[in-house]
What does this fold into?
Amino acid sequence: MSEISHEPLLKEFSDAHWDEAACAVIVPEGKARAVAEWLLEQGVDYCSNVTGVDYLESEVKEKINNEAGEEETVTRTEPGRIDVVYHLYSMRDQTGPLVIKQRTSRENAQVESLTPLWRSCELQEREVFDLFGVDFKGHPDQRRILMWDEFEGHPMRKDFVEPFDYEWEPTPHDEILEKHKKGKVIV
It folds into this structure.
């Protein structure tokens, strides 16, 4: 299977950019739906995977040339963010993958849902919503999929702190233990 070139996408959407380290196209905020619609027109008809990646605020050192032409190392602060990553294929042309990312801040994380265009995104976007706390605008059924409704927080965030006691989990532990002691089969 040959790869899908990112070059035509970058020509069509000049404010998108290529992240060489991640081999992904970073989609400009608010344009994910337009990019996805354009990709569908190009034959990119399947999304195999949607996931989230959490980045905490960090200091990044980079080498630059100063005004005197000398190389120096500067430190800058990279703000925290969440990337929602989509792996796309063309089943028609048997090509892929093309990786695109929507970026959002960690506070009030929100991106556009691509479920209306690729049905395979539905459950995976719900998982990213549940585990990372990303709100998908336009998702047809956004609700928790792995954690129970009363669960507080998003356990895949890097700053998530586990509760000291999971006894508040909505599972009838005592009832199940009593049935096991009596030799009853749980159906």
User: Anything to note?
Assistant: The chain has a mean pLDDT of 90. The first strand starts at residue 17 and ends at 19. The two ends are 46 Å apart (CA to CA).
